[in-house]
Amino acid sequence: MKANAYGHGLEALAPVAVEAGADMLGICSNPEAETIRQLGLEIPLLRLRMALEAEMEESVRELDIQEQVGSQEAAAYLSSAGVRRGRPVDVHLDIDTGMGRSGFFPEQIDAIREVMSLPGISIARVMTHFPTADSGDLAQTSAQIQLFNKGIVLIHGRRCPVIGRVSLNVLTIDVTDLDCEVRLGDEVVLIGSQGDQEITFEEMADKFSSVHTEINLMAGSLNKISYT
Question: Which of 70, 188, 189, 222 is deepest in the core (most CB within 10 A)?
Fold first, then answer.
């Protein structure tokens, strides 16, 4: 819905989008968010750019916009605002995988960890921006996807990406592209082989900019690790 729904009319299209099943609307400015709120729509709103401090203050206090966080400064400001209002601010952690405009670079892992530990904010999602996804050549987009939030497992002999954060010994897998049903009890291979596919310690080490011995030590002494 940003830029007045690209000129098509925010007031007319926002209710239609909600009625059609949208679970979030993208906006750019506080006046756009205010218009949506005045329409009586309580749907979550995400600002599709980095916000100025004055915008964030109004957003937290009155409009309840979910903000992109791509810098420690923005995160610190929203953290203090969330603490002041007594309720965490939902934020989207922005990772720059190649857009080159905003967000943390993947190698800024220490800064990202620091942001994730701040009080007053809640990480609703981790996001990135694919600037050439509509191009005929998807090489850059594919490289960005590989760089982006890296883990893989094997299910039914197919590679499936890990999505979201790893919570100690619990993780979430995207099985959208599997051509068969996944059932409780199915084997999930983290390191090892399944069907004609294999994930090695060396491959995982490359993904995490590490060495295979470190991954091996973290995994323990098993040659094949599988969980259900």
Answer: 70
Q: Specify burial of residue 175 (Cβ count, 10 A radius: 0-12, 13-18, 19+).
A: middle
pTM (2 d.p.): 0.64
Residue owning tokens 């729509």? 41
pLDDT of residue 150: 62
Contact 192, 223 (CB under 8 A): yes
- CA dihedral for 227, 177, 181, 175, sign (positive or negative): positive
Give the three-class secondary structure for 1: coil
How many CB atoms are closer than 10 A to CB 112? 20
User: What is the mean pLDDT for each group of 10 consecutive residues in the chain (228 residues)?
Assistant: 92 96 94 95 92 88 90 93 92 86 83 89 85 84 73 86 69 82 87 86 67 57 44
Nearest to 225 by CA among 206, 198, 207: 198
Q: What is d(CA 125, CA 164) in angstroms, rounded to the nearest whole number? A: 8
